[in-house]
Write a structure and sequence with these properties.
The protein has a six-stranded mixed sheet with strand order 7-4-6-5-9-8, with no helix packed on it. A six-stranded mixed sheet has the order 16-13-17-20-19-18, sandwiched between helices. Strands 21-27-25-23-24 form a five-stranded antiparallel sheet. The protein contains seven helices and 27 strands. The protein is of the alpha+beta class. A hairpin with a 2-residue loop joins strand 8 and strand 9 (118-121). It has helices spanning 4-12, 153-161, 200-210, 225-234, 255-261, 302-320, 370-375; strands spanning 20-22, 37-38, 48-49, 53-56, 67-75, 89-93, 105-108, 112-115, 118-121, 131-132, 143-145, 168-170, 175-179, 184-185, 196-197, 215-217, 240-244, 265-269, 280-283, 294-298, 331-334, 339-341, 347-353, 359-361, 378-382, 387-389, 394-399. The chain is elongated, with a radius of gyration of 31 Å. The chain starts with a helix and ends in an 8-residue tail after the last strand. Residues 179, 181, 183-184, 196, 198-200, 244-248, 250, 253, 299-302 line the site of adenosine monophosphate.
């Protein structure tokens, strides 16, 4: 059985970034840029006023004043000046408007008063005051973003400011989720005898969304080879197919054999981890575009599925999307209270951290107990082997907070 690290390596060896394509800005949030972006114009494109007031020649306003200037034209944002400002003159100017020739500074309207058609300024004005020079933010041809940049809101605005309305980006992964199990009913139904609600699909769709991917949720597949094969076949054109349930050792755990009958090549089945041991991973046959889909069979128990997602699916999605730092990184901290670990597999135990970084394990009923995970901030990691941990001992903690700056 592979260790978590070995299994992660086996997954990542089979993942490469998806091809690039152009998408409209409104669809590009969180995607990875696949081209260099340069400024097409100087920005600002002209010397512009930073406040509402008067465009002046600073040499006319040396010393405390009062200085009297005659008032010329009014320049609104979006207009261009028609006259220069000569000695002894001021032009009325609004924020964002071009500063006329001759003027080299702007006086705030709040620091002026008007008298007999003149403007009076009772202070000195320094050259360049409240003026943003042409090209101060960027010059035409400047490199603004390089391939690999993650498109944040500010970067999308930057692209718009240089006229790039459909950037070339690594394509967003396409994911399908197929829940399996004869016992499952939709969450809006009341389970009958022996039935439970399908909670995995909702959780996995949300985990996918946190990773920037809108997953398609397929109908619940029964534990019956023919319909299961049809449903899995119908979902096989995704970049990542997540199946939940049907991968353990039960009589009706048919997912591995059905996947293999569809030509999906198994890479591993079972990982030394608790919860989540029965996880299955394989690669589907290449599609016409040459790419192969990744197929994960996650165990049906919700916490097993969550652990499998965080450890293996999330990094795979990140690499498909062209990101560099992919695997979740555990942090270290002291245990708040003693803990007894038993078992031959490392355990991912739901836990929270207090303000001082101390790790508190939560009372947890095992792999089906999603309620505890709903209160958790991550998982305390206990290595394989029976051992009594004492309060204060340093252990690893895997935070499961949303991946930063995805969107
Ligand atoms: P399996 O991996 O199919 O053996 O399922 C393991 C356990 O997880 C069983 O108790 C299932 O009822 C439960 N389970 C399977 N699929 C789901 C699901 N989609 N939502 C919630 N529980 C599930
Ligand atoms: Mg099942």
């Amino acid at each position: 059985m592979l260790t978590v690290d070995e299994a992660l390596r086996a997954v990542m060896e089979r993942v490469s970034p998806l091809p690039a394509r152009r998408v409209p800005l409104a669809r590009a949030l969180g995607l990875v840029l696949a081209e260099e972006i340069r400024a097409d114009l100087d920005l600002p494109p002209f010397d512009k006023a930073l406040v509402d007031g008067y465009a002046v020649r600073s040499e006319d306003l040396i010393g405390p004043g009062p200085h009297r200037l005659t008032i010329g034209e009014e320049i609104l944002a979006g207009r261009t000046p028609t006259f220069p400002v000569f000695h002894g003159q001021a032009a009325v100017i609004m924020t964002g408007a071009p500063i006329p020739e001759g003027a080299d500074a702007v006086v705030m309207v709040e620091e002026t008063r008007r008298e007999n058609g003149e403007v009076i300024v009772e202070r000195s004005v320094s050259p360049g005051q409240f003026r943003l020079e042409r090209g101060r933010e960027m010059k035409a041809g400047d490199v603004l973003l390089r391939p690999g940049a993650i498109l944040s809101p500010a970067r999308l605005g930057l692209l718009a400011s240089v006229g790039c309305v459909s950037p070339l980006v690594v394509r967003r992964p396409i994911m399908s989720i197929v829940p399996t199990g004869d016992e499952l009913v939709a969450p809006d139904k009341r389970p009958g005898p022996g039935q439970i609600r399908n909670s995995n699909a909702a959780m996995l769709c949300a985990l996918a969304l946190e990773s920037g991917v809108e997953a398609t949720e397929h109908p619940i597949a029964p534990d019956d080879p023919d319909p299961l094969r049809r449903i899995l076949d119908g979902a096989s054109d995704s970049d990542i197919l997540l199946i939940t349930g049907g991968v353990s050792a039960g009589n009706r755990d048919l997912v591995p054999e059905v996947l293999e009958s569809l030509g999906v090549v198994r890479v591993f089945h079972k990982v030394r981890v608790r919860p989540g041991k029965p996880i299955w991973f394989g690669v589907s046959p290449p599609r016409p575009d040459g790419a192969s889909g990744l197929v994960f069979g996650l165990p049906g128990n919700p916490v097993s599925g969550a652990v499998g997602f965080h450890l293996f699916v999330r990094p795979a999605l990140a690499r498909l999307a062209g990101r560099d730092a992919v695997a979740l990184k555990p942090v270290r901290g002291p245990l708040r209270a003693g803990f007894v670990h038993r078992g031959e597999r490392p355990t991912y135990h739901p836990a929270v951290r207090d303000e001082d970084g101390a790790i508190e394990t939560l009372a947890w009923a095992g792999s089906s107990d999603l309620r505890t995970v709903a209160d958790a901030e991550g998982f305390a990691i206990f290595p394989a082997g029976d051992r009594q941990y004492v309060a204060g001992e340093s252990i690893e903690f895997l935070p499961i907070t949303p991946p930063g700056n995805w969107f």
